[in-house]
Specification:
The chain is α/β, with parallel strands linked by helices. The protein contains seven helices and seven strands; from the N terminus they run E-H-E-H-H-E-E-H-E-H-E-E-H-H. Helix 1 crosses helix 6 and helix 2 crosses helix 4. The structure holds flavin mononucleotide.
């Protein structure tokens, strides 16, 4: 089995959070879709609620506190990202956008990103297309064709096998396909010694 990692960013504020519920459903479907392609997919969930103060501090000072640095490093090292936000005032939430704002500008370049959102009403489902997709396209991410939107009613028992389930499955298969055709992400250590000591001594 090939090993790959996906980071799942969940920006829900409520406890329990419907955004986290959708994030968990997407994670489970991604693991199954990857396993069908002989990929052992490790999932790391990042709850932005827990990092809200750190994100504000980073915006004010320019420096990430340790827990936030760990989260942004995890995003950089991941083979793919699943980004799930609640819709606030017809767009992504401020916390979600602020987290994206503290990522280095090249972090998401070339990385597959599955975008997803929860909301009170289906009327705002296009926020995924007019807000999230352009945001990640600007950062040169590879945004998957299927975006997953879940309004409150979509979580009801009647719809468990309906549209939401089929979109989750389709988006997860697109993610697994992207993982399969890419080499794993390797993160370069900026402090790594690139010349050996013998060569360094020769120059003295
Ligand atoms: C400040 C605020 C603004 C919201 N704006 C919208 C909106 O414009 N459209 C919508 O459909 N739902 C809106 N909602 C509802 C949330 O998107 C919805 O309840 C979401 O699923 C909450 O996610 P959570 O349970 O993970 O916190 C808003 C909620 C809040 C608190």
């Amino acid at each position: 089995m090939n090993q790959r990692t996906v980071v799942v960013v969940s920006a829900g504020l409520s406890q329990p959070s419907s955004t986290r519920l959708l994030a968990d459903q997407l994670s489970a479907a991604a693991v199954s879709a990857a396993a069908a392609r002989h990929i052992d997919l490790k999932v790391q969930i990042i709850e932005l609620r827990d990092l809200a103060h750190d994100i504000a501090n980073n915006l004010l000072t320019g420096f990430p506190p340790a827990a936030l640095k760990e989260a942004t490093d995890a995003v950089a090292a991941a083979d793919a990202l699943i980004a799930v936000t609640p819709i606030f005032t017809a767009s992504y939430s401020g916390l979600f956008k602020s987290f994206v704002d503290v990522l280095d500008k090249d972090t998401l370049a070339g990385k597959p990103v599955l975008i997803a959102a929860t909301a009170g009403t289906a009327r705002h489902s296009l926020a995924l297309e007019h807000a999230l997709r352009p945001l990640f396209a600007y950062l040169h991410a590879v945004v998957l064709p299927t975006a997953v939107f879940a309004a409150t009613d979509d979580f009801g028992a009647d719809s468990a096998d309906g549209t939401l389930r089929s979109r989750i499955t389709r988006a997860s298969e697109e993610l697994a396909r992207e993982l399969e055709r890419r080499d794993p992400v390797t993160v370069l250590d900026p402090f790594a010694l690139t010349t050996n000591f013998e060569d360094l001594l020769k120059t003295m």
